[in-house]
């Protein structure tokens, strides 16, 4: 029998208690941790590698969406969002195949979401999980702005020169953010999107990892996984893992995996350091 190792995340104790009680009837669900905020959720996902997470969207500090943005693509579990969003947002979830349950939580919705999660888990359909969620988030963001704001802003070509530090342009709702390459800690691919992590904030850029890598300084940015690029300057610890893999500790909370295919990159870096 399929048994999904599951984490519950909600900043409201009563909501956690209610969800826990509704999940007791499902023998397929094994609750291994409960978290009351986004930071705890990120740590639990990295430490416990769950199969499934029930994730509240609206939380103070790091919300549910930003929890997913901050997790390396191949480490994102199946996600069921708990939400009180309006119908337009739920439509975005449906279009991009993102599972959700509505608050106040009803048993019928929990049944539907769990059965769908089990089916996807058995079929190993979670490979594009983060990509689907990022696409839904971007759709919701576009819907939430008015027509004038929703117009695609002009994106200037950022010319790099020896006098100017190289930057990456990120289009937002009504502004363009220029990120200094030296401040980008790591980058994670999610389908047609790239998630750039800078000082605890995740910026979403619509481009593939391969395309972005061509614009990044090759002397400090190295690909260490099929979906991940790291800025070597931010590596604090290299932690050996199973089967020739490594984990890189970049800060107090950020931990990313180096796959076997790219381990020579880190070995070379350690030799030169």
Identify the quaternary structure here. single chain
Low-confidence stretches: 146-152
CATH homologous superfamily placement of the largest domain: Response regulator
Radius of gyration: 19 Å
Quantity of strands, as a count: 15
The total tally of domains equals 2
User: Structural class per helix/strand content?
Assistant: alpha/beta
Amount of helix: 25-40%
Total helices: the number is 9
* Average pLDDT reading: 87
At CATH level 2, the architecture of the largest domain is: 3-Layer(aba) Sandwich
Task: Give me the CATH fold name of the largest domain.
Answer: Rossmann fold
Q: How can the largest sheet be summarized?
A: 5 strands, parallel
Report how far apart the termini are: 49 Å
Topology pattern, helix = H, strand = E:
EHEHEHEHEHHHEEEEEHEEEEEH
Our estimate of the beta-strand percent is 25-35%
What does this structure look like?
- The chain has helices at residues 13-23, 38-48, 64-69, 87-95, 107-123, 129-143, 147-150, 209-215, 263-272; strands spanning 4-9, 29-35, 52-56, 78-83, 99-102, 167-171, 176-180, 186-190, 193-198, 201-205, 221-225, 228-231, 237-240, 246-249, 255-258.
- With 273 residues, it is an alpha/beta fold.
- Strand 13 and strand 14 form a beta hairpin.
- The termini are far apart.
- The strands form four sheets. A five-stranded parallel β-sheet has the order 2-1-3-4-5, sandwiched between helices. A five-stranded antiparallel β-sheet has the order 10-9-8-12-11, with helices on both faces.
- Residues 146-152 have low confidence and may be disordered.
- Helix content is 33%, strand content 27%.
């Amino acid at each position: 029998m399929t048994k999904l190792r599951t984490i519950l995340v909600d900043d409201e104790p009563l909501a956690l208690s209610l969800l826990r009680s509704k999940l007791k009837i499902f023998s397929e669900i094994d609750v291994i941790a409960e978290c009351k905020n986004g930071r705890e959720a990120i740590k639990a996902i990295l430490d416990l590698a769950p199969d499934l997470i029930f994730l509240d969207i609206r939380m103070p500090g790091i919300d549910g969406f930003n929890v997913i943005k901050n997790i390396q693509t191949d480490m994102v579990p199946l996600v069921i969002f708990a939400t009180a969003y309006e119908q337009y947002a739920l439509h975005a979830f449906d279009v991009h195949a993102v599972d959700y349950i509505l608050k106040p939580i009803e048993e019928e919705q929990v049944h539907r979401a769990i059965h769908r999660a089990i089916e996807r888990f058995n079929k190993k359909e979670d490979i594009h999980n983060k990509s689907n969620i990022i696409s839904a988030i971007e759709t919701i963001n576009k819907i939430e702005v008015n027509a004038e704001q929703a117009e695609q802003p002009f994106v200037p070509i950022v010319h790099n020169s020896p006098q100017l530090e190289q930057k990456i342009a990120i289009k937002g709702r009504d502004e363009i953010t220029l990120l200094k390459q030296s401040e980008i800690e790591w980058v994670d691919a999610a389908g047609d999107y790239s998630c750039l992590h800078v000082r605890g904030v995740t910026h979403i850029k619509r481009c593939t990892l391969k395309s972005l890598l061509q614009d990044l300084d090759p002397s400090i940015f190295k690909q260490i996984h099929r979906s991940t690029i790291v800025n070597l300057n931010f590596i604090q610890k290299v932690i050996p893992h199973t089967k020739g893999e490594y984990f890189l500790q970049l800060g107090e909370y950020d931990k990313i995996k180096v796959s076997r295919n790219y381990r020579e990159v880190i070995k070379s870096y350690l030799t030169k350091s």
